[in-house]
From TrEMBL:
It comes from the Bacteria. PANTHER family: STEROL 3-BETA-GLUCOSYLTRANSFERASE (PTHR48050), STEROL 3-BETA-GLUCOSYLTRANSFERASE UGT80A2 (PTHR48050:SF13). Gene3D superfamilies: Glycogen Phosphorylase B. It holds the Pfam family Glyco_transf_28. InterPro entries: EryCIII-like_C, Glycosyltransferase_28, GlycoTrans_28_N, UDP_glucos_trans. It comes from Actinoplanes sandaracinus. This is Glycosyltransferase. Residues 296-405 form the Erythromycin biosynthesis protein CIII-like C-terminal domain. Residues 3-139 form the Glycosyltransferase family 28 N-terminal domain.
Length: 415
């Protein structure tokens, strides 16, 4: 089948689907990834088809969230802010998805690419969800993008349902125009979501049940299948200075915040240097979208280095607790120090704490040199964290997240 994966968002929202796409192609499907121009090279270099979507996520999302204080800890506020940014491009996004979908047999939709569900309906194509965060309402926990505290069983489920409907409201005008152009009748957000549930619309969740066990009250057409790892770059060779730095002493720690913005990159860089020196460790620091640039004999700043190569060589990993980076650290079997900024990151940081692979999360708004140094000292000095991380990594190595997606695709192909 001709499979179109629609991935909207930052690098962490796109990279796992390169690995999923490569696996689907290996099984005989032809895969195109519709995403932003920023990620075209990483898609095409893996042998996948590429179709461009509007919105420069690095320029618009990172800069605007930084200006708005994205690290402030209000998960709901930031979630809605991200949603509004995407909604501003909804008309162009819908048009681009329609153009791509006309060359597809089935659509795989990521959470921010849900507008593709209307396109699939209009073109008479089957579709399914491929999500990196738990989105289906459940009594077991509150929405991952809002809070880490349980609101109580009924309230957890109600809040998640309300959030799904509320997230569609900024898109109403664009969706109305899109549906009209496709010859579809207008529909209210709640009614559309109810229609998906009535048709048993399948969703595969790309994280391990060892990290988030599937809730008992989820419907049978929701499947927690395991991680989809970003496609390996077979041509990657570490820069000589990186290889030399790692070899020059005991394993360093990794510090990086991925696509997260920083209102004051100089201050954050200085904080990192202070923490590394107080802990007596060495560090490889990823500059990321924040443009971090700490300097010193015990610190090496790098740009993009594949996590599957770098993380196993580290003594611990400090990161923003994005879904993909959290999984990469667990896969590598190394202790973690999560520093969540916003949206679903506190949720994943909490999962790391439950697994016992971290001495505890440090919310970005509370980050200081002393706190980071103390966490690094504990994470690298207490062998129990690595032992637990190694055990989780062993579990993840037995899972095949793409297999669950293939099973659903086979059912779709059979009609």
């Amino acid at each position: 089948m001709r499979v179109l994966i629609i991935a909207v968002g930052s690098r962490g929202d796109v990279a796992p689907y390169t690995g999923l796409g490569v696996r689907l192609q290996r099984e005989g499907h032809r895969v195109t990834l519709a995403t932003h121009a920023l990620f075209e090279e990483s898609v095409v270099s893996r042998g996948l088809g590429f179709h461009g979507l509007p919105l420069d996520t690095r320029e618009e999302m990172a800069s605007r969230l930084a200006a708005g204080g994205a690290g402030g800890g209000d998960g709901l506020r930031v979630t809605l802010a991200v949603n509004r940014i995407v909604a501003e491009h909804a008309r162009a996004l819908g048009e681009a998805i329609v153009a791509a979908a006309r060359q597809a047999d089935v659509l795989l939709l990521t959470p921010a690419g849900w507008i593709g569900g209307h396109v699939a309906e209009g073109l008479g194509l089957p579709s399914m969800g491929v999500y990196l965060q738990p989105m289906t309402p459940t009594r077991e926990f509150a929405p991952a993008t809002v809070t880490t505290r349980s609101l109580g069983g009924w309230a957890n489920r109600w809040t998640a349902s309300a959030l799904l409907a509320a997230g569609q409201r900024p898109f109403r005008a664009a969706v109305g125009e899109l549906r009209h152009g496709l010859g579809l009748p207008p529909v209210k957000p709640g009614a559309w979501l109810a229609g998906l549930r009535a048709t048993r619309w399948p969703i595969c969740y790309g994280y391990s049940p060892a990290v988030v066990p599937q809730p008992a009250d989820w419907p049978e057409w929701n499947h927690t299948v395991g991680y989809w790892w970003p496609a390996t770059d077979q041509d990657f060779r570490p820069a000589p200075e990186l290889a030399d730095f790692i070899a020059a002493g005991p394993p360093p720690v990794y510090i990086g915040f991925g696509s997260m913005p920083a209102a004051d990159r100089e201050a954050l860089s200085a904080l990192i240097v202070a923490a590394v020196r107080r802990s007596g460790l060495r560090a490889v620091v990823s500059s990321g979208w924040a443009g971090l640039a700490p300097a010193g004999d015990d610190v090496l700043t790098v740009s993009e280095v594949p996590h599957d190569w770098l993380f196993p060589r580290m003594a611990a990993v400090v990161h923003h607790a994005g879904a993909g980076t959290t999984g990469a650290g667990l896969r590598a079997g190394v202790p973690a120090v999560p520093v969540p900024f916003m949206v679903d990151q506190p949720f994943w940081a909490g999962r790391l704490e439950r697994l016992g692979v971290t001495p505890g999360a440090i919310p970005f708004r509370s980050l200081s040199g002393d706190r980071l140094a103390a966490a690094l000292t504990e994470a690298t000095g207490d062998p129990r964290y690595r032992e637990r991380a190694t055990a989780v990594a062993g579990r993840l190595a037995t899972e095949d997240g793409a297999a669950g997606v293939l099973t659903v695709l086979e059912k779709i192909a059979r009609g």
